[in-house]
Every structure is written in C-alpha cells, then in structure tokens.
Write a structure and sequence with these properties.
With 336 residues, the protein is of the alpha+beta class. Helices cover 56% and strands 10% of the residues. The chain folds into two domains: 3-197, H-NOX domain (Alpha-Beta Complex), CATH 3.90.1520; 225-326, Homeodomain-like (Arc Repressor Mutant, subunit A, Orthogonal Bundle).
Length: 336
C-alpha cells in the first residue's frame, strides 16, 4: 500500500464537509482522529483515502464525487508541491517541479508527459488502488488549476478517462470546454504546447526559491534515510535508459553501496525486489491504461527482449501481457 500524506485526506475531508457531510461522523466511520488529519507527519493507506471518497459519494449521492472534488482546485491537496506549482513562472516550469518532487506527494500514481510537435499529452498512470473517482479527481484538478491560475482562456484539446462515465458526460464537456472521451486508452489531458507557456498569476520568484529550498531539504532527508519512495522514483526515471545497479542507487542517495545494502537488510528488501515491484506496477498500469505496444512497454521497463518481459509478467500475475490487456483484473500487491 502506498502512503497518502495527511494533507491529501485533509483536502478531501474539507471538501466533503463544505458540501454538507458531517465531519465527525465521517471520521468516526473511518476510525481516524482529527488530530491525525492535522498532523503533517501522519500517513494514511490508499484504502483509507478511497474509503473516505466512497463514504462521501454515498452521503452526497454524487456518483462522480472525484470530478467535483477536482473542480474545487484546492492547492492544499498537493502539500508543499502545490505551493511550488502556484509560485512557478508557467505550467512548463510547474511540470518540471512536479517530476522532481513527485515522491513528496505520495499520490496514487505517476504523472508524465509526451511532446509531439505542438501537442503535449499529460498522462496519469494510476496505481491499482485508485478508483475511477480518484482518477477523475487528479485529472480534473490539473485542469482546474490551469483555469484558475493562468493568464489564459485556452482550453484543453481533449480529456481522456479509461473508465466508463460515472455521470452525464455533458457536465464534463461543460467544465473542460473540449471533447471528453471515456473508455479511452489512457487517463490524461491533451493540450496545445503554447498553453503551457501562459504565465501563472501568482508567480513569485523569491517565494519559489524559498519553497524549493524547503522541498530540497525534504528530498535530502528522504535520500539520507534511503527512503524507499525516493529509490522507487529513481528506478522509474532511469528504467527507460538502463536497469539501475546498486552503485547507481547508492550514488543517487549519497550512500556507499555497503551502507545501502545494510539499509536494505534492515528494511527486509533488496534492489532486485524493488526493481521488480516498480516494473510490475508500471507494467500493469501501461497494459490497462495505455495502448502502447507490448514490445515498447518491455523496452521502457528495461527488458532487452520482449520474451523476458512476458515471462516476468506471467510470474507476477499468472497471466500473459496480452491476456491481461484484454481482461485486466486487480492483482494483489506483493513483493516480487
């Protein structure tokens, strides 16, 4: 299970309370204390976040509660990263910060973007725990931020969700101002490249430097403690180019290989296990949320041969990549 920071649950809780859900009753059903929600050090499981979303949906009778939450554009849902994005010069710069500090967010997935001429596709690879409402919340929040904080009236080219519509599609088209596709091959937003260069209203270079300094300190602390989230992000970033070795990871976090090995022993894991865990999660996301060819997926996961990837995937899931793509199922999380 991924750890979800308290600020993400706090943002959802505040949204639901503003909509009329009784705060104390909701927390009681979740067996969560108000003090834990307010604690910056507290982490929650993905299932707790999803359960809060589900209870809010039931209480309000809103099938697409994630979409509605995303429209609220609460910067607090992104923690420190949200305020860094807010102070950025433009969305291009914000995307760079999002990539660098993603491991501080503890989100239910991974964001990345692809450039094709004047078109940029921003994709969201959600984790297995993420519900359709969570996916809608993330993507809607991206667009809501752009609508609220940029000096531009440009709309996306199109918005895409892999799941079926949760509510009337007309309300999505009205908000996004573009075509919205459900049962699509991926989750994400397609935009004109120029729209990402529009200035952000609250850009402040001095504030940005202070916030980035704080984020770098948090990142350094995670690296110094050999945080597994930092190591997983590093593996994810370098896999398309090479399969990282122990020395690569050690250099990235500023440890000797011997120190890193001792840390892995204390955490009851090793690089091979983490590598397989990342590959497995990404493979499931790519197969269920994109139309990328299996040979390409194998290559970006660091496999020199497609057959090696197919054998590994069969070992992890009991299914071939081809079969899984046709009938994706929830695969229990486990160490590989």
């Amino acid at each position: 299970m991924q750890n979800i920071p308290s600020f993400a649950l706090a943002a959802l809780l505040n949204f639901l309370a503003d909509k009329g859900v009784e705060r104390d009753v909701l927390l009681g059903k979740l067996s969560i204390a108000e003090s834990d929600i307010c604690s910056t050090d507290k982490k929650f499981s993905a299932s707790e976040y999803e359960r809060m979303m589900q209870l809010g949906q039931q209480a309000l009778g809103e099938p697409n509660i994630g979409f509605l939450h995303g429209k609220s554009s609460d910067i607090g849902q992104w923690g420190l990263l949200g305020f860094i994005v807010l102070a950025s010069e433009n969305l291009w710069q914000a995307l760079g910060y999002q990539r660098r500090y993603q491991c501080l967010l503890g989100a239910l997935g991974t964001a990345y973007h692809e450039i094709d001429g004047d078109i940029v596709t921003m994709r969201w690879l959600s984790s297995q725990e993420a519900s359709a409402n969570s996916i809608e919340q993330v993507i809607t929040a991206w667009v809501a931020f752009a609508f609220t904080h940029t000096i531009s009236d440009q709309k996306p080219v199109s918005v895409h969700f892999v799941h079926s519509p949760l509510a009337d599609v007309a309300q999505y088209r009205e908000f996004f101002g573009c075509d919205v596709y459900f049962n699509a091959p991926f989750n994400g937003v397609v935009v004109n490249r120029a729209s990402l260069e529009s200035p952000l209203i609250n850009h402040n270079e001095e504030v940005l430097q202070v916030l980035c300094c704080h984020a770098e300190n948090q990142l350094s602390e995670k690296k110094a403690g050999a945080s597994l989230s930092v190591i997983r992000q590093f593996i994810t970033e370098v896999l398309p180019d090479k399969v990282p070795e122990l020395s690569d990871v050690a250099q990235h976090i500023g440890m000797s290989t011997r120190q890193l090995q001792r840390h892995f022993q204390k955490a009851d894991t090793n690089l091979t296990s983490l590598l397989n865990d990342v590959r497995r999660s990404l493979a499931i996301a790519y197969l269920s949320q994109t139309d990328l060819k299996i040979a390409y997926i194998a290559s970006v996961l660091g496999y020199s041969e497609q057959s090696a990837f197919q054998r590994a995937f069969k070992r992890w899931t009991g299914s071939t990549p081809q079969s899984f793509r046709l009938t994706p199922t929830v695969i229990p999380l486990q160490k590989s």
